[in-house]
Design a protein that fits this description.
Elements lengths: L7 E3 L9 E3 L9 E3 L14 E4 L8 E6 L9 E5 L11 E4 L11 E4 L8 E6 L13 E5 L9 E5 L18 E4 L8 E6 L4 E5 L9 E5 L10 E5 L8 E6 L9 E5 L11 E4 L17 E5 L8 E6 L14 E5 L11 E3 L10 E8 L8 E6 L12 E5 L11 E3 L13 E5 L8 E6 L2 H4 L2 E5 L3
Antiparallel strand pairs: 1-2, 3-30, 4-5, 5-6, 6-7, 8-9, 9-10, 10-11, 12-13, 13-14, 14-15, 16-17, 17-18, 18-19, 20-21, 21-22, 22-23, 24-25, 25-26, 26-27, 28-29, 29-30
Length: 453
């Protein structure tokens, strides 16, 4: 619906548009639009988002990346400081002296330095450790402080490059945070999926001085393409979820669960295979487990495993299928059969439903809700304009979305929903939703910010 935000309550199966009832939204329906101070075509502003109180003023801030390499500048990360009246252009710009390193491909927020302040980890997975190697990757950690951005630590990939190709693992994309060893300090989980490895950097006074390497069982399964953390079995330790889109016995994708504890097992404790594998994985790009999240969606006190399967095929679009989200409820034991499957009410084979996931209590009922993006969805007759679907958590969470968001003026190729983040950015006690659209405005990119109400 061009020119408006679509906010609808789905009743049963969506067969016609007449089967929709309007429901009040937890957001102000007209978002504000955030951009660079001087937007630059091709910068991909809005590709990654993170929320945290980075400047230690007790108000959450928003980090936005523009990781696409341009001829005349390096990649950048922008910080919008939270306040009652949010500025629509950045308060702070972070960059490195190197271009072409993928700075800002991925974010994570957490206190890894044990000082009570929120730090920001920025992945640079295309950085090289030497002139001979490629795509080694690194992570730059900016310490939370009133002078945020002044102090940072760089953790380089601990993995040697492949001796034949000299290509590294893309260490730094993706990133996640959680207290895996239960010492009260967050740990940083770093994917290096080109080498089928995930590195756990334990938090402390010196981040990265202690680490554990987790590795996949099949070469080329892209172990670590997605990572997330949450306490699935409610034992006080954050558990690690690792996606391997080419894993499993048939190469159709798998999720590995490593239970947190004082020490990590070298083998997964739980393995979740693709419940609906494609008929011929050899000709279809596997996407099961290419996005992950962990949160207590059903309100029982256990974090649940949320697995995205966009089901898009870049190599052969005719093999694309409607995307799905599979939810496995947490508990003392985890079933390999999903407890709930989510889909678009009007499934589109190329919409990439489940491309990105975000969790947080959007409607203020005390239970985590789920935002699911479909960056390839048609909106306002504009192809790949993108949509975001909201599913309210609770004991009665069902397969149909409670709300659908589209940008106010859908734009072809905007890919609204490429990244999402949830947090109270204007200190009114209500969560806000930030949605990245890096393809908007000739790929200069925009972020749409919906304030809670």
């Amino acid at each position: 619906m061009k020119g408006q935000i679509v906010c609808r309550l789905m009743i049963g199966l969506l067969l016609t548009s007449n089967m929709m009832l309007t429901q009040s939204s937890p957001f102000h329906l007209q978002p504000i639009v955030l951009t660079e101070s001087r937007p630059v075509a091709g910068a991909c502003f809005g590709s990654a988002l993170a929320v945290g109180d980075f400047n230690n003023d007790k108000i959450s801030d928003l980090a936005v990346s523009a990781p696409c390499t341009l001829e005349n500048r390096a990649e950048r990360v922008f910080i919008f400081y939270g306040r009652q009246t949010l500025q629509r252009t950045p308060n702070l710009t972070l960059s490195t002296r190197e271009a072409g390193i993928g700075f800002g491909f991925a974010f994570a927020a957490g206190d890894w330095t044990r000082d009570g302040r929120t730090d920001l980890a920025v992945g640079a997975p295309e950085a090289s450790n030497s002139e001979e190697s490629l795509l080694d990757g690194r992570v730059i950690i900016y310490r939370g402080a009133s002078n945020f951005g002044a102090n940072s630590t760089t953790v380089r990939s601990p993995l040697p490059p492949d001796p034949d190709s000299l290509i590294g693992g893309r260490f730094g994309d993706p990133l996640a945070s959680g207290d895996v060893d239960g010492d009260g300090t967050s740990d940083l989980i770093v994917g290096a999926w080109l080498m089928d490895t995930v590195v756990v950097l334990y938090g402390g006074n010196t981040i990265g001085s202690r680490r554990t390497l987790l590795q996949g069982g099949i070469v080329g399964e892209q172990f670590g393409f997605a990572v997330a953390a949450g306490d699935i079995n409610k034992d006080g330790f954050a558990d690690i979820l690792i996606g391997a889109p080419f894993g499993g016995s048939n190469g159709a994708g798998v999720v590995y669960v490593f239970l947190g504890g004082k020490s990590l097992s070298g083998r997964p404790n739980v393995t979740l295979p693709n419940p609906q594998p494609p008929a011929n994985p050899a000709i279809t790009d596997p996407t099961f487990a290419s996005s992950l999240a962990a949160a207590d969606i059903n309100g029982d006190g256990y974090a649940d495993i949320i697995v995205g399967s966009p089901n898009t095929s870049e190599s052969d679009p005719t093999e694309s299928r409607p995307g799905r989200v599979y939810i496995y409820f947490g508990g003392p034991t985890i079933s390999s059969t999903p407890d709930l499957t989510l889909q678009e009410p009007d499934p589109q084979a190329t919409s990439a439903f489940a491309y990105a996931l975000a969790v947080g209590d959007l409607n203020g009922d005390g239970t985590a809700d789920l935002a699911v993006s479909a960056i390839g969805a048609t909106a306002g007759n504009r192809q790949r304009a993108g949509r975001v679907y909201l599913f309210y958590g609770g004991p009665t969470i069902g397969p149909n979305p409670d709300l659908i968001l589209e940008p106010p003026s859908p734009e072809a190729g905007a890919e609204f929903g490429t990244a999402m983040a949830i947090g109270d950015l204007n200190k009114d006690g209500k969560p806000d939703l930030a949605v990245g659209a890096p393809g908007a405005s000739r790929r200069a990119g925009q972020v749409f910010l919906y304030f809670g109400r």
